[in-house]
Specification:
β2 and β3 form a beta hairpin. This protein is an alpha+beta fold. It has a domain of about 120 residues. It is globular, with a radius of gyration of 19 Å. The protein is about 20% helix and about 50% strand.
Protein backbone atom coordinates (compact mmCIF):
# COMPACT_ATOMS: atom_id res chain seq x y z
CA UNK A 1 0.00 0.00 0.00
CA UNK A 2 1.42 3.36 -0.97
CA UNK A 3 1.63 6.24 1.47
CA UNK A 4 -0.87 8.15 -0.70
CA UNK A 5 -3.53 5.45 -0.31
CA UNK A 6 -3.26 5.35 3.50
CA UNK A 7 -5.36 8.53 4.05
CA UNK A 8 -8.06 7.07 1.77
CA UNK A 9 -8.13 3.82 3.73
CA UNK A 10 -8.27 5.74 7.02
CA UNK A 11 -11.06 7.96 5.70
CA UNK A 12 -13.04 4.93 4.51
CA UNK A 13 -12.65 3.30 7.92
CA UNK A 14 -13.75 6.47 9.70
CA UNK A 15 -16.74 6.81 7.38
CA UNK A 16 -17.76 3.22 8.12
CA UNK A 17 -17.65 3.91 11.88
CA UNK A 18 -19.59 7.15 11.44
CA UNK A 19 -22.33 5.40 9.48
CA UNK A 20 -22.52 2.59 12.04
CA UNK A 21 -22.77 5.13 14.86
CA UNK A 22 -25.77 6.79 13.19
CA UNK A 23 -28.04 3.76 13.50
CA UNK A 24 -30.95 4.15 15.94
CA UNK A 25 -31.02 0.52 16.98
CA UNK A 26 -28.31 -2.05 17.68
CA UNK A 27 -26.54 -2.85 14.45
CA UNK A 28 -24.35 -5.90 14.04
CA UNK A 29 -21.57 -5.34 11.56
CA UNK A 30 -18.81 -7.66 10.45
CA UNK A 31 -15.25 -6.42 10.39
CA UNK A 32 -12.66 -8.66 8.79
CA UNK A 33 -9.35 -9.12 10.55
CA UNK A 34 -6.17 -11.10 10.07
CA UNK A 35 -7.66 -14.02 12.01
CA UNK A 36 -11.14 -13.85 10.41
CA UNK A 37 -14.32 -11.95 11.11
CA UNK A 38 -15.16 -10.20 14.36
CA UNK A 39 -18.71 -9.17 15.28
CA UNK A 40 -19.10 -5.54 16.35
CA UNK A 41 -22.32 -4.26 17.88
CA UNK A 42 -22.82 -0.51 17.59
CA UNK A 43 -25.63 1.12 19.57
CA UNK A 44 -26.60 4.77 19.65
CA UNK A 45 -28.67 6.29 22.46
CA UNK A 46 -30.10 9.78 22.35
CA UNK A 47 -31.35 11.91 25.17
CA UNK A 48 -32.41 15.37 26.18
CA UNK A 49 -32.64 17.26 29.40
CA UNK A 50 -33.68 20.75 30.27
CA UNK A 51 -33.08 22.84 33.31
CA UNK A 52 -34.99 26.04 32.62
CA UNK A 53 -32.51 27.96 34.77
CA UNK A 54 -29.19 26.88 33.28
CA UNK A 55 -29.40 25.06 29.94
CA UNK A 56 -31.03 22.65 27.51
CA UNK A 57 -28.99 19.68 26.32
CA UNK A 58 -29.38 17.22 23.44
CA UNK A 59 -26.88 14.37 23.38
CA UNK A 60 -26.06 11.16 21.57
CA UNK A 61 -23.96 8.36 23.04
CA UNK A 62 -22.41 5.73 20.73
CA UNK A 63 -21.39 2.35 22.17
CA UNK A 64 -19.35 -0.36 20.47
CA UNK A 65 -19.60 -3.80 22.04
CA UNK A 66 -21.21 -2.26 25.14
CA UNK A 67 -18.44 0.28 25.74
CA UNK A 68 -18.97 4.02 25.17
CA UNK A 69 -16.81 5.42 22.37
CA UNK A 70 -18.20 8.94 21.93
CA UNK A 71 -20.75 11.33 23.41
CA UNK A 72 -21.75 14.32 21.31
CA UNK A 73 -23.69 17.04 23.08
CA UNK A 74 -25.21 20.36 22.06
CA UNK A 75 -26.29 22.82 24.77
CA UNK A 76 -28.22 26.08 24.61
CA UNK A 77 -28.09 28.48 27.56
CA UNK A 78 -30.84 30.96 28.58
CA UNK A 79 -28.81 33.89 27.21
CA UNK A 80 -28.71 32.24 23.76
CA UNK A 81 -25.09 31.13 24.00
CA UNK A 82 -24.24 27.65 22.72
CA UNK A 83 -21.83 24.88 23.59
CA UNK A 84 -20.79 21.76 21.67
CA UNK A 85 -19.04 19.03 23.62
CA UNK A 86 -17.46 15.79 22.48
CA UNK A 87 -16.42 13.15 25.00
CA UNK A 88 -14.15 10.44 23.52
CA UNK A 89 -13.29 7.11 25.20
CA UNK A 90 -10.57 4.48 24.75
CA UNK A 91 -11.20 0.78 23.97
CA UNK A 92 -11.88 0.04 27.64
CA UNK A 93 -14.46 2.82 28.04
CA UNK A 94 -12.13 5.13 30.00
CA UNK A 95 -12.11 8.82 29.06
CA UNK A 96 -9.51 9.74 26.44
CA UNK A 97 -10.42 13.33 25.55
CA UNK A 98 -13.08 15.97 26.12
CA UNK A 99 -13.45 18.90 23.75
CA UNK A 100 -15.78 21.83 24.31
CA UNK A 101 -16.41 24.72 21.94
CA UNK A 102 -18.56 27.51 23.31
CA UNK A 103 -19.71 30.98 22.41
CA UNK A 104 -19.47 33.58 25.16
CA UNK A 105 -20.66 37.15 25.56
CA UNK A 106 -18.12 39.56 26.98
CA UNK A 107 -18.93 43.12 27.98
CA UNK A 108 -16.56 45.82 29.10
CA UNK A 109 -17.62 49.23 30.35
CA UNK A 110 -20.22 50.90 28.17
CA UNK A 111 -19.29 49.02 25.01
CA UNK A 112 -21.55 46.70 23.07
CA UNK A 113 -21.15 43.05 24.18
CA UNK A 114 -18.69 41.07 22.09
CA UNK A 115 -19.14 37.44 21.03
CA UNK A 116 -16.14 35.27 21.87
CA UNK A 117 -15.36 31.68 20.93
CA UNK A 118 -13.76 29.48 23.57
CA UNK A 119 -12.30 26.00 23.08
CA UNK A 120 -11.20 23.64 25.85
CA UNK A 121 -9.47 20.31 25.23
CA UNK A 122 -8.70 17.91 28.08
CA UNK A 123 -6.63 14.74 27.52
CA UNK A 124 -6.62 11.74 29.83
CA UNK A 125 -4.27 8.88 30.61
CA UNK A 126 -6.37 6.26 32.30
CA UNK A 127 -8.75 8.16 34.56
CA UNK A 128 -6.37 11.05 35.26
CA UNK A 129 -6.00 14.34 33.42
CA UNK A 130 -2.82 14.19 31.37
CA UNK A 131 -2.93 17.66 29.81
CA UNK A 132 -5.35 20.39 28.86
CA UNK A 133 -5.51 23.55 26.80
CA UNK A 134 -7.84 26.48 26.34
CA UNK A 135 -8.15 29.27 23.81
CA UNK A 136 -10.50 32.25 23.81
CA UNK A 137 -10.63 33.89 20.39
CA UNK A 138 -7.38 32.06 19.53
CA UNK A 139 -5.55 33.41 22.59
CA UNK A 140 -4.16 30.73 24.90
CA UNK A 141 -5.58 30.75 28.44
CA UNK A 142 -5.13 28.53 31.50
CA UNK A 143 -7.74 25.83 32.03
CA UNK A 144 -9.06 26.15 35.56
CA UNK A 145 -9.64 23.00 37.64
CA UNK A 146 -13.34 23.88 38.07
CA UNK A 147 -13.74 23.87 34.26
CA UNK A 148 -12.48 20.29 34.05
CA UNK A 149 -14.65 19.25 36.99
CA UNK A 150 -17.71 20.86 35.36
CA UNK A 151 -17.09 18.90 32.14
CA UNK A 152 -16.67 15.62 34.01
CA UNK A 153 -19.67 16.24 36.27
CA UNK A 154 -21.81 16.92 33.25
CA UNK A 155 -20.53 13.71 31.60
CA UNK A 156 -21.69 11.76 34.68
CA UNK A 157 -25.10 13.48 34.50
CA UNK A 158 -25.54 12.32 30.90
CA UNK A 159 -24.76 8.70 31.76
CA UNK A 160 -27.04 8.84 34.81
CA UNK A 161 -29.95 9.67 32.47
CA UNK A 162 -29.29 6.81 30.04
CA UNK A 163 -30.72 3.35 30.16
CA UNK A 164 -28.48 0.99 32.11
CA UNK A 165 -28.58 -1.66 29.34
CA UNK A 166 -25.16 -0.54 28.08
CA UNK A 167 -22.02 -0.04 30.12
CA UNK A 168 -21.33 3.50 31.31
CA UNK A 169 -17.95 4.80 32.40
CA UNK A 170 -17.20 4.52 36.09
CA UNK A 171 -18.73 7.38 38.05
CA UNK A 172 -16.11 7.38 40.82
CA UNK A 173 -13.42 9.23 38.84
Amino acid sequence: MSSKSLPIVLFAGAATLAVAACVDKPAATRAGGASGSVATDTVKRQGRWSDSLTAESDYTVAYVNGQPVVVEERMVFPDGMRSARTYLYDDGGAPARIIEERTLTAASGNSTPTMLRARIAVYFTGDRVDSSGKTVDNIEKTVQPYEIENLRRHEREIFARLSTTSTAPRSDR
